[in-house]
Design goal:
The chain is α/β, with parallel strands linked by helices. It folds into 2 domains: 292 residues, 3-Layer(aba) Sandwich (UDP-N-acetylmuramoyl-L-alanine:D-glutamate ligase), CATH 3.40.1190.10; 129 residues, Alpha-Beta Complex (Protein-Tyrosine Phosphatase, Chain A), CATH 3.90.190.20. It is 41% helix and 18% strand. The chain is built from 15 helices and 17 strands. The strands form 3 sheets. It has an 8-stranded mixed β-sheet, with helices on both faces. Strands 12-13-17-14-15-16 form a 6-stranded mixed β-sheet, sandwiched between helices. Strands 9-10-11 form a 3-stranded antiparallel β-sheet. Strand 14, helix 12 and strand 15 form a beta-alpha-beta unit. The model has no long low-confidence stretch (mean pLDDT 95).
Length: 435
Amino acid sequence: MTNKMTYNEAVSWIHNRLRLGIKPGLQRMKWMMERLGHPHKKMKAIHVGGTNGKGSTVCFVRNILEQHSYQVGTFTSPYLISFNERISVNGEPITDNEITELVQIIKPLAEQLETTELGAPTEFEVITAMAFYYFGELRKVDFVIFEVGLGGRLDSTNIVEPLVSVITSIGFDHMAILGDSLEQIAFEKAGIIKKGTPVVVGVDQEEALTVIKKQAIPSQADILVLNTEAIINDHEVKASGELFTLTTPLKKYKQLDISMNGFHQVRNASIAVMAVEQLHNQGALTIDDVSLRNGLHKANWQGRYEILQSSPPIIIDGAHNPEGVASLLATLEAHIPHKRWHFIIAVLNDKKLENMLNSISSKASSVSCTTFNFPRACQAEELAELIHHDNKQIFDDWRHAIDENIRQLSEEDALIITGSLYFLSDVRKYVLESL
């Protein structure tokens, strides 16, 4: 190729496609895949959807498979430290040169597609196409785990043909696109169910579960539901992490030990075990108990109840919807109940904000409202109007919010920085450099 791009030019071209917004549908992906030789059909894939818990479940599955000595590719979003981590192998982001090479392959296709009636592919569609081509043609691995971007039925990852599908949870998020009831959201998430492909489900609301089961019938897909086909018992909170016993149709796993905090992570780990069991049932692998346990224990997903400092605690957590906030508060109650909790919050304005903010306000000693540089970020003043708390502050600069809160922390306090994962991407680096 004559006009060699730089890495920065490649990433800039990708990000520039954010202007195209979100365009649900699979036709543009199918068009690109056909011209690339259908790379999405050339891999053993696991497809993970759901409202919350997708990233953590991907992490648990990846670590279990790695401990079984497999090469495991992942496609996740958003990124927390570097853009490249969205496409990774065994947890290692692909290189700048590989990103550039992929853009130079996809960019001419995207420009050609733009001239058709289907229109230009979005940023997420371009990155998804890059991931499919990478794992299908450039870097063959044993398994690839694809995380759904938004919804499921019309998400660009949904052209994948997986060995097992996973729906972690159903909650209120992206309601302008997915619908404003659990049933509507469940219908969109259940769109990842494929003909004859088993689906592991962590959903616990009956109305959502009913929709998912109904959607599986015409696909003749076996459904395995956490708390029905697999049961969690003997849960214990550790100083760091959780202990639990999981009983599945295959076996009873006593005293599983995870390093991630919160009962929601116990659920995510259990879903991951159930998904790996489905690979075992298909003959794709043989489960080794020691490797499974080591994988669960080793799994660590940055930005999910991540403790950046232990004394006094400084925690970042990507709780960006009501269900995520409920899990965060439950984890704080289990692990640091006697601390005064001080929150710094920045969110996107397309969320169901009032319920989650009220939940935080009811437990917080103080709340700092701030914002960050992102097209859909809620402004600090707008956020403050939704928060009813006697001790709240407004910071237009999130760095100032962090500096002030850290300066005032005592041993009786804990600082929790939460909201959008796009926000935490910037925050994490800044806090670690400040400590």
